[in-house]
Each structure stands twice: as structure tokens, then as C-alpha cells.
Amino acid sequence: MSGSVSPLAPKTFAEMPPVRGVRMATAEAGIKYKNRTDVLMMVFDAPASVAGVFTRSLCPSAAVDFCRQNLSGGGARAVVVNSGNANAFTGVKGRAATALTAQSAAEAVGCSTGEVFLASTGVIGEPLDATKFAGVLGDMKDRGREDFWFEAAKAIMTTDTYPKVATRSAEIGGVTVTINGIAKGAGMIAPDMATMLSFVVTDADIAPQALQALLSDGVGPSFNSVTVDSDTSTSDTLMLFATGAAAADGQARIEDAADAALDGFRAALNAVLFDLALQVVRDGEGARKMVAVTVEGAESDAAAKRIGLSIANSPLVKTAVAGEDANWGRVVMAVGKAGEKADRDLLAIWFGDIRVAVNGERDPAYSEAAASAVMKAQDIAIKVEIGLGSGTATVYTCDLTKEYIEINGDYRS
Amino acid sequence: MSGSVSPLAPKTFAEMPPVRGVRMATAEAGIKYKNRTDVLMMVFDAPASVAGVFTRSLCPSAAVDFCRQNLSGGGARAVVVNSGNANAFTGVKGRAATALTAQSAAEAVGCSTGEVFLASTGVIGEPLDATKFAGVLGDMKDRGREDFWFEAAKAIMTTDTYPKVATRSAEIGGVTVTINGIAKGAGMIAPDMATMLSFVVTDADIAPQALQALLSDGVGPSFNSVTVDSDTSTSDTLMLFATGAAAADGQARIEDAADAALDGFRAALNAVLFDLALQVVRDGEGARKMVAVTVEGAESDAAAKRIGLSIANSPLVKTAVAGEDANWGRVVMAVGKAGEKADRDLLAIWFGDIRVAVNGERDPAYSEAAASAVMKAQDIAIKVEIGLGSGTATVYTCDLTKEYIEINGDYRS
Lengths: 413, 413
What we know:
The structure is a homodimer.
Chain A: E1 22-27, E2 39-54, H1 62-71, E3 75-85, H2 91-109, E4 116-123, H3 131-143, H4 149-155, E5 164-172, E6 175-184, E7 197-202, H5 208-218, E8 237-242, H6 263-282, E9 290-298, H7 301-312, H8 315-322, H9 328-337, E10 348-351, E11 354-358, E12 361-362, H10 368-375, E13 379-385, E14 391-398, H11 402-410
Parallel strand pairs in A: 3-4, 7-8, 9-13
Antiparallel strand pairs in A: 1-2, 2-3, 2-8, 5-6, 6-7, 9-14, 10-11, 10-13, 11-12
Protein name (chains A, B): Arginine biosynthesis bifunctional protein ArgJ
GO molecular function, one term (chains A, B): L-glutamate N-acetyltransferase activity
Family (chains A, B): Belongs to the ArgJ family.
């Protein structure tokens, strides 16, 4: 575990207001360590609409399999999240563990196991002893509080150095609704659908299909545009719940994601997702600098994103950033290996506002001093103009430092 | 630059015999630094058959473009290799530099520029001052020696900590021929066709088309199966030359790669390529351990290779190896993200001879102590059985250590 907080951490944390219709509690179940908070339970007063996106890993965790199965029901009463054990690559025992955990949660809440959602994070391959949940979930249900968001975010941390919270409000048909989100993640971050664990809850009244459409659209430029180390987790889970409590204020239930009444909500939701995703990158294991890579002029948006991720995942680009070296030759290398159409003689590259290369060679006005000055900053923008089309994308990453090696060479996460 | 020799370096270097028909010399042209050997010239007494494979980067160096163009001629009289400047992303100036270098070499040797081959390694994006070659190539031609292989390998090193040489002999129709090779490379190693720079010369008499077929086949399980850091160079160049001097001993010229007389030669050539490729991995920047990743039971050989490279390129697998941690959960993660068909419940994983996982869960006989003992070794074998088909592949990599960060955060290569 890293001892100190990331230098890229937010200077202040958002004040998290309650979201009507959901209560939370944490407990020490002793999953891996004694005397450590390792379980979070969210309970919805009434069935909430639910949407989710999950890892595209072909070896997903038992909890991911379980959530995928329940998602078709569209309703949620409880969410149980544990740290210390990912319940991934645990085979038949893994399925037994999710079944038993869901059973314990259903009994505590008084709902069906089809309304329970689960997420686990921690060691891969160790059997998860789910009997440990049975003793704590009933009590957690009784202790549930609305004003518990910050504590909830802390409870799901593993190698994270700070809790990740975000909140926005929006109006739907004149009724104000709140959107709160929490996330965890610092390593094994290269989401191909969602990243590690993130839970977002709103009191808006939105039907499950519309909620799923909003989430699937929102994940592209947020969680699916960040990478810490190119490694995709078995447990990536992003879920969005709508309690519908705003119906009491007269908010008419939304059935269709294309409903114009959702415009403000969609923007606020996307802002929450983007805020959380960037907090994950800023807590990247060993990170000292944040890098935004923008690719313009590619053949398509998809091509731009692939080139952007090739740059953002390149160990040589990331170590150059760590060394404050304006090494744009490595950016050229990463463009070249991306496998998307590129013409060396049309490329232009910027570090911050400094254009370092143009028309297939070093910018005639290139100044090593000016480029180096840009690299001293904590937040660094790299822009590449491909010059072939109108495809654009921006992806986010952090630098690669000795601390990343230290964290991952010592800690079996 | 790394100060000390890789602990994975060969304990002894091969004695390199002369190869009839080729002479070499090195010089200090002052490309980047003063008083440092930075140019190698190889001169063939008569036109040698030539074959080559190059980077699949879409932003290749000017030297790679130049070689690709000359390859169709099929004959080589001279090779000029420089370090200190990659002549990549140098646009029109880059093409002018290759033209001028080839002109200088052609004048020195008395051949056409179409019989000259070039390779450059070093900084990307800096214009290469090719006028510096004009003064040294004529003298180098006169000083050329047959017994200069070890010196030649030393002359092309950059972040390499030891020179890479390999030699084998074979019989073709009862005539003994020699195959010598040299290579350089330690970082930016994820060949998609060849890696960095490698030159192999034989005195066998083999036509260019047959030579190309031999090389294209041989590169798959050797240079194209190694990775240090997943970054593909703009300059990857592997060339094979056949001087034909063995014709003087009565070796009948081979026109077809399928000729049965080539069986022994093919095996010897593949051994040279494999030997050099593994030496590149063993000199991986910051490497302390060598890892062989074998994947069996995949849907196809191509699927097995993709899964193998996903494991070999995973920063989390590589840092676990550096930390001597038998963290097979990260191997599962890397299998899952590879995008090839895999079924968690059929997977089995070995570290060395220790089976750590089987049928989608931890091996019942798993012993942390036994698995950890395997990780203490310098050479580590990881085997994954996918359980779906008969596709197999083995790829080679090294661990990811703080020294890699140090080398690449400080040095503009």
C-alpha cells in the first residue's frame, strides 16, 4: 500500500448531499484483514431502476457474472461491495459465494436475490468466505444512513490514496434531482467498458432501459477514456441507480433516453462520470503527473482513440513524462505503432501550447527550453494532429514512476 | 545509460569466425558525441543476395524507407549503420540524409546507391548531418577486416549493456557454410516484424527470393516473439546477406527456399535468429529476470501468441515477477484482457513446474512456498493451458523494474 496521498489528489472534496431513497452503512467483516472496514452495503427504500456496464474481460469475476444476470430484472434493493477479495477465478466456489452473499442480503433487506447487486475487489483467485457477510448485513441494514457518501467511498478503497466522490444536480421538468457517485481504482486500470468499481445514484425517476442508454453513452468519454497501466481488471463495474424519490416532488417518470427533458440530467450525469474517471487517473499508482492526450484529424473518432491510447499506454512516453523530458520522438513512435492510418509528413505535435513538430520534422521554431518548461507542470497536455480526417478523441493517463513498480512489486492486490 | 552489465548477460560470448566475402570497420563520425564509435560499415567483396524485414510502424525511419526501396534490387555491396540519431520523423531532410549517405558509401565502395543499405538508431526527430559520413567511409572501406564481428556488435550499442553476437555453421550439399549475426536493442522492443537493428551474414550462395523466404519464416518464433516494453520502434531492421563465397567450395546456388538442401541451413539460421532475439530480451532495460510465457490449448497459434503477448506486456505481471511474487491472478487478468477466446473454468496455470491454478480455481495442492521458490530464479517459465484447442506459442520478455524507469526517465534515446 502506498503510504502518502497522491500529489494529484483534489485539494478539497465535494460536499456530498443525501440522495433520497438510498441509505448506506459499512462494517468490518474480516474478509482479509481484521479491524478494517471492508464491506459497504447500499439499501434502496423501494426498488430502484438499475443500469450497469462491466469489464469486457473474458475471465470476469463471479460478482460481475452475477450482476449481469440480475440486470435484466431492472430493479435493485441492495448492493453489497467488499474489498480484500475479488472473488475472481474462483470457479464453482465463486458462484456459491455470490449466491450465499445475495441470500444474506435479501434476508436482511426483505427482497428477492434478483434485486441484489454485488461487487468485489482485492486478490484474484482466493476463495471468498461469504459466511462472513451473514453476521453483518442485517445490522448494516438497520444502521443505514443517507449522509454517508464520503464514508462509503472510503470503505471501497484498496491501493487508492484518497476517496473518490462527485455530485451534481439537474432539473427534470422543473424538479431538481441529485446525482451522487463514488469510485475506487488506482491500478489495473484500462477499462474496456467501465473501470474497477463505481456506483452512481440519483433520486430521479427514470426507467431502467432509459437509464442504461444514458450510462452506456456516458461511459465512452469518461471511464472508457482513461488508462493507468493498460491492464484491464476482471472486476470493472460501473452501476447507476435511480431511486425515483423525486416522483414525490412531481417529477414525471422518464421512459425514453431521447426525452428532451433529460438534457440537463444527461449533462450532469456525464459530468459526474468524467469527474470520477479523472479522479481515478489522478490516483494512478505512483502518479506524479496527469496527462491529457488529444488526437485530432484522424480517419475516424475510433482511430483517434486508438492512437490516443497507444500514446497513453506507451511506457516510453509515460517514463519521459515522469522525467519531465519533452521527448516527442516517443510520441511519433506510439503513433506509428497504433496501427491506424498516419502519414509522417502530415503529423504535427504539441506539448501544451508549444508546437514541437510539424510536417514530418522538428518545428523550425522549436525551443528545447520552452518545451521543457511545459513538462515541469503537474498537468500536461499532448496534442497530435494526424492531418488525414476529422476524427478526434481525448484520453487521460498518468506518468509511470518508480513508485508504480514499488507498489506492484510488493503488494499482492 | 545503464552503468552496469545486465545480470542476464551471457557468461561468455561466442567466438565469431570470419564469414568469407564480407569486411567491416567502425569509426567515430561525431554524429552525436565526440570520441565515440558511432558508425559501422560492412562491405561485400561482390554483390551479396539480400533479404530484410522491417518495422510495421506507420511512421518508419528514413533509413527503413530507403532499405525497403533497394530491397527489390536483391543485391548488396555496402551497409552503413550509425548510432546517436535514428533519422526518423525527419521528413524531407531525412530523405536527403539517406541519399547523401548512400552516395558517400557508393563512391567509397565503387557501386551504385541501389546496392547500399542503411540503418540508423538513436534520437527520433533530430535532423541527421550526413555530411559527417563523407569523410570517414572511404577510409573505413580500406580498413575493412573479416575478423571484426565482436567490434561491429559493440559499435551499434546504445542502451545495450553488452554486445549481441551469435554464430552457427551448416552444410549445404556437403559444403560447410557459416552464419554470423549481430543485434542491438534493449528498449522500445515489441517487434512487429523485426527488432531494432540486426544483421546476419552467411557465405552460402542463396538467391535473394529464397533468402527472403527463409528470413520471413524465421522471424516469427524469434524476433517477433520477444517484447521488452510493448513499444515498437520506428527503426526495426533485420537484414540477412548471403555473400555466395561458398560457391568457391562447390556449393551449388540455391534458388528455392523449399529446396531440401536448405534443411540444415534453415535450422542453423533459425538458431542464430532465436539466439540474438533472446539476447535482446536478456538485455531489456532494467531487466533482472527473463520470462518465457508459453500458451497451449488456444483456438489457434495466432490466438496463443496474442494471449502470450498480453501476459508478457502486462505491467502488473512484469512488476510481480520483479517482486518475485507468484501472482497468478494477474496472469488470469492478462488472459482475460487479451480478447481471445478463453473460459475461466478451463484455465490452468503453471509457474515453473508448479501448477498454481486448475479448472477455474486455485490448485487444491497449491503451496505458496513452492510457487515463491520458483520466482527466486533468474529464468522463469509461465505456462497457461487454455483448454479450448491446439494453438500454442511461446513469447519471451523480462521483468519491469525501477531501473527501467530510471533509464527512460533520464535518457533521451
